[in-house]
Amino acid sequence: MSTLAISKRIWSLCHVLRDDGIVYHKYLSELTYLLFLKAASETGKDDLLPQGYRWEDLTSQASPGMLGFYRKMLTSLGEDADKEIVREIFRFPTTVFNHEENLRKVVEGIDEIDWHEAMSDGLGAVYESLLQRNASEARSGAGQYFTPRPLVDAMVQLLQPDLGETIQDPAAGTAGFLISAQSYVFERHDSAAYARNPPHFQAVEIEGDTYRLCLMNMFLHGMQGKVIHGDALTHDAEELTSPNVIIANPPFGTSVGGARARRDDLPFKTSNKQFMFLQHIVQSLSAGGRAAVVLPDNVLFEENVGREIRTWLMDQCDLHTILRLPVGIFYAQGVKTNVLFFTKISEVATKSTQNVWVYDLRAQMPSFGKTRPLTERDFAPFVKAFGPDPLGAGNRKDEGEEGRFRKFTRQEIAAWGDNLDISWLRNGEADGDLTELDDIAVAILSHLRSALAEIEAVKDELADLKSAEA
């Protein structure tokens, strides 16, 4: 049975829980518990689990009694397992199963699958497929932490992570960027070289269930690294070392909430968490380090402290490339976004950015969604135009006003008030092409969110002005 077939089979078991009102995201969290137990059994790693709390112990439970045993099993694994990875994955566990017959149906469904063929691709491929399926369900709300795979792979390909480098994602979600980076490095070196000098992975994830998915995804892909359950905008991530590569898609939204103390080491005080993440990334990078970060449009044009942060970014770093992303590529989101590619020069550098190349993949593009998903082919022209140098210093061609790729000097950008929201192609987006209700809803949401982003940008500017006057 192929990876895709197994993923489809497992996902089909979700209908068992619909009568209990279980949403997709909760179903995936529950699957994480069960698949970890099954994976340990299939891969000969049962020794990770204490005796009496393994897959075979669960499947052998008679009725009634399986649900009670399962609840006890989850609690014991979260509190008493010897291995930290097990305790973390089963940390504060809760089960969505309210009826034993539903649990038994799902357990038997997983147990009946022939896992032999999937083992050749790795169980991580099955889990990754489940994560993608979860994100594609508009009702799941999972798009907030899932970046489309073609975009992830393109960003990783252009940054070219390598052996021995430290690679960080400060808003890791389900670890998609880090897993893609691992695959990129592994495919370009033999296994012996990789084993002698592997890359070092760092991840920070604030949301508890997503942190669990992140750990599980990395475990099934055979990855080890420093994974923190916390907030990179607080002092939770202080122990992380300076990375060579940062690749991230910080969560959408502007104002920071919560009562926890925020970091006091960021140079610019702002309530906008995208600007806070950008400062964290610039400060964290080692000299010569490379970054690719997905950020919404308002980061490119917001005034006052927003402008100061962009100026600071272009001083300390060579902001060599901006990719304007198409609308509708993020599930359940309508935010207009960009990828900023930059190289850290130093913390005392000035005028590090001489030219900014902008590639417009938004204007005159089809409407992306379920009926027209994003593919690797959509990024191929940009990857070619970017060139082979991960620092953006290769031989590039300005395509002029009719093309998608153009160069703008630092002097031109300064004349525009360091506004980086640069476009020149006539916008040919057409919402009228949409036919699926989910796609239409995303298009409407896009327009609403664009308006909201502008309103919140004004609100943030006023808040920052009041703070400066205080």
UniProtKB/TrEMBL annotation:
Pfam families: N6_Mtase. Its EC number is 2.1.1.72. It catalyses: a 2'-deoxyadenosine in DNA + S-adenosyl-L-methionine = an N(6)-methyl-2'-deoxyadenosine in DNA + S-adenosyl-L-homocysteine + H(+). Keywords: Methyltransferase, Restriction system, S-adenosyl-L-methionine, Transferase. This is site-specific DNA-methyltransferase (adenine-specific). InterPro entries: DNA_Adenine_Mtase, DNA_methylase_A-5, SAM-dependent_MTases_sf, T1MK-like_N_sf. GO terms for molecular function: DNA binding; N-methyltransferase activity; site-specific DNA-methyltransferase (adenine-specific) activity. It is an enzyme of class 2 (transferase). Gene3D superfamilies: 1.20.1260.30, Vaccinia Virus protein VP39.
